[in-house]
Amino acid sequence: MAHDAVRIGNRNVGQGEPVFVIAEIGINHNGSLDLAKKLIDGALLAGADAVKFQKRTPEACVPKDQWQVERETPWGRMTYIDYRHKVELDEEGYREIDRHCRERNILWFASCWDEESVDFMERFDPPCYKAASASLTDTALLQKKKSTGRPLIISTGMSTMEEIEDAVRSLGQQKLLIAHSTSTYPCPPHELNLRMIETLKGKYPTCPIGYSGHEVGLVPTWAAVALGATFVERHITLDRSMWGSDQAASVEIGGFMRLVSNIRDVEVALGDGVKRVYAAELGQRQKLRRVHPPPNT
């Protein structure tokens, strides 16, 4: 195991390990168990290591003054609190997701947006937890997740460096993974600031550093891997034009297949930084070099 690796399920995540790829389903299932299963199967087909959901207790997460605000939804006009319930999966739904993922040997876990949701998720023995960027300053919620003893991934979008430092200080660096992120959906390239991956690696050398991306396209995620991200997370969808606030910044199944395939290419292509002459080069060397010192192989 690499010196900074954290065990998540059956995988080591960290420097020197294969990049851990998380397909963020979030609430892109729009409350449909059937859609959730299709997204799990799509993530599996693409070669993702894990899928992630978002779990909320609507009464705890929606400010009370917004409960009765009406809005248009795919199910007609309804209050915001009713809408939030509509897009949540219940315990029976998550039991089915748990069975579906275990049968297919793909890890699953969730971002819990409130403490009650952590208690709910504990019933399913998740391999880790995620704290969304919005929760980085919610110390009580971070501590609740930490108290389970499971690895915790924190995202750092919409956060100052001081807020990141405070969160890491309160959590400690044991079993902690930190994801660089910018919380714009979708995020323009000039706000991605991928060199923050190097900054975080330098600041927290014992924590696996990764990338949670919300850009349109795949290239920045590959660049994040080249810069040393040990795990990546991208939203997955069946169709970017579907209803939902995260769909436009999501990757469709075909794109996710390319995303994972080329992450594996980047990993191999990075090599070890030791210069060598490869056997396949020797013919060219013999043919094209005018002066032939013995190769130092």
What does this structure look like?
- The protein is an alpha/beta fold.
- Helix content is 36%, strand content 20%.
- Helix 7 links the parallel strand 9 and strand 10.
Topology, pairings included?
Blueprint: E1 6-8, E2 11-13, E3 20-26, H1 33-46, E4 50-55, H2 58-61, E5 70-73, E6 76-79, H3 80-86, H4 91-104, E7 107-112, H5 115-122, E8 129-131, H6 139-146, E9 152-155, H7 161-171, E10 176-181, H8 196-203, E11 209-213, H9 219-226, E12 231-237, E13 251-252, H10 253-270, H11 282-288
Parallel strand pairs: 3-4, 3-12, 4-7, 8-9, 9-10, 10-11, 11-12, 12-13
Antiparallel strand pairs: 1-2, 5-6
Alpha-beta content class? alpha/beta
Beta-strand share of residues: 15-25%
Largest sheet: 9 strands, parallel
The CATH superfamily turns out to be Aldolase class I
The rounded distance between the terminal residues' Cα atoms is: 29 Å
Tell me how many strands there are: 13
Q: What is the global morphology?
A: globular
Rg, Å, rounded: 21 Å
Mean pLDDT equals 92
Low-confidence stretches: none
Characteristic terms for this protein:
alpha/beta, TIM Barrel, 36% helix
How is this structure best summarized?
With 297 residues, the protein is of the alpha/beta class. The chain has helices at 33-46, 58-61, 80-86, 91-104, 115-122, 139-146, 161-171, 196-203, 219-226, 253-270, 282-288, and strands at 6-8, 11-13, 20-26, 50-55, 70-73, 76-79, 107-112, 129-131, 152-155, 176-181, 209-213, 231-237, 251-252.
